[in-house]
Structure formats: C-alpha cells, structure tokens
Amino acid sequence: MDPLLDKLLVYLIVFAVGGGLCAIAQLLIIKTKLTPARILVIFLLVGVVLEGIGVYKPLNEFCQAGISVPIIGFGAALTRGAIEYAKQIGILGALGGGLIRTSLGIGTAVVMSYIVTLIFSPRSK
C-alpha cells in the first residue's frame, strides 16, 4: 500500500477514535448530571480496566494516539507501571509504579503550566 495512504488512514483512525471519545464525554455531560471531573475519572478508570484485563495494548496498536493521548491512556499507563513494579518489587512497587511510569509526563505538565502562567499572567474571574 502507498505510504501516503497509510499515514492518511492512521490520521483518520486517530481522529475518529479521539472524536468518538469526545462525543461520548459530551453526551455524558448533556444527558446525565455527571460533572466533567467525574467523567474524567470514569475515562481514567476505563483505561485502568482495559490495561488490567489486557485489552488496551491491542486497542492502542490500532487506535494509536486516538486512545493513548486522552485520559484513558494515562489510566492505562498508571496500571502498566503498577503491574510492572509490583512484579519487580512487590506491594511497594504496586503503590508507586504508576507514579514512576507517568512522572515524566506529570512533571512536564507542571513545568509547562508554570511557564504559561508566567507568560500570560492569568486572572481568576
């Protein structure tokens, strides 16, 4: 198959999956009394469950960034880290493994958020 068509197909899949997740979240906001914070927790737990039962990896291979970039991917990364470090260290690994696995992303988000607040000086309403 043509490499350009391959890339186009990947972009289409990522867009469809990511857009579908956003549509589900929007429907939950409109049709239920769930707050956005609770919906985020639900999506995070979906990632935890998908990784825990071993379904996340094949989904990630097909959907790629469409499922790994949203909060579902974060939940899966937490679970993957907890499982890996639990096998190596034991109970302490299970408790800290998720944080070890995701610490680079969390640290980057904190630093970049601070830099953005220095540049744009946000004000609360």
Report on the architecture of this protein.
With 125 residues, this protein is an all-alpha fold. The chain has one domain. It is 85% helix and 0% strand. Helix 2 packs across helix 5 and helix 5 packs antiparallel against helix 6. The longest helix is centred in the C-terminal third of the chain and has 30 residues. It is globular, with a radius of gyration of 17 Å.
What secondary-structure arrangement, pairings included, does this model have?
Elements: H1 3-31, H2 36-52, H3 56-63, H4 65-68, H5 71-88, H6 91-120
User: What composes the largest sheet?
Assistant: none
Number of domains: 1
The oligomeric status of these chains comes to single chain
Structural class: mainly alpha
Q: What would you say about this model in short?
A:
The protein has helices at 3-31, 36-52, 56-63, 65-68, 71-88, 91-120.
Quickly list its features.
single chain; 125 residues; mainly alpha; 85% helix
